[in-house]
Amino acid sequence: MEKPRKKFIDVVHKAMVAANTMDRDELLFSYKGILYPLTVCSLEVFKAMESLEARSDDVILAGYPKSGTNWVGQILSDLVATFEKKTQDEENVNDEDLEEFPYLEVGDTGKYERMNKLPSRRVIFTHLLPDNLPRSIFKNKAKILLLLRNPKDVATSFYHFSNGMSVLPSYETWDDFFIAFMTEKMPWGSYFNYLSEWNKYADDENVMTITYEELKENRALGVKNIAAFFGISLTEEELQGVVERSSFQSMKENSLKTHGALGSVLFRKGGVSDWKSLFNEDQNEKMDKAFEEHIAGTKLGMKLKYDVYCKA
Ligand code: PPS
What we know:
The chain is α/β, with parallel strands linked by helices.
């Protein structure tokens, strides 16, 4: 993903320009009870999405916003590109004309018909709930990497992103944002609902879960496990290259090329526990209680190691 991503940068730029002329309360719309940003998603595109024909060799990355999608997306794209480079003809590799915006739900109505003609393997990111994904993803047994991040760091990252990215409603204070986050007013829906819904797929053999925190602790092991899950066979040296290119520093340095103006907002801190700079005692209590009520006892809830990463 280190090559310039012209279409990606173009889509983001156009959305940011359009959002700059809109009022705050016009920025989101609702589809099937979930809010989405109007400058990047639309009802027509959601309907067209059902025509996607998923494949068993698709590489799908699912994660709630701000869970590290761009990071793990870089790892997946790099694994696939490195494998293709050594196994496919030069002319099939890195064709810029074939580039699609990597998030499934962002694009135009013709995107899915174009995607149906793309060669394998396709790498697809999404923040959608499982029920809102094209049915063919489950029917055709596409493999899904489910990415989780602790809710306090997600909220912290989401707050800063909302105030730096014009396509999302901004917030005057962290306290205002916290209330919105806890009362399910977020684009792409509620964090807790997202985990509860995906938890129904946690034991599916085509779903592998990984946490942001475990990747931070051991990126090399994470990359190795991800490659094994998708059946991408690379040498130790090739895997090491993927590990190095996915460091926060390396991705941030490249971000003007890969993400344009979005890069400086997206690659913010890239760490664990920044929530300690924002959460007050009352907010900690409220989040701890909500976690306990909604997901603590579930498989995904346990994966998050809440006591390690989220206790004040
Ligand atoms: S988005 O816009 O919802 O798709 O955002 P997403 O990519 O899911 O999450 C953004 C956060 O991921 C951090 N990030 C990284 N962390 C560690 N290592 C690497 N390489 C990396 N790349 C991105 C990014 O900095 C955001 O987290 P915060 O806490 O805001 O820094």
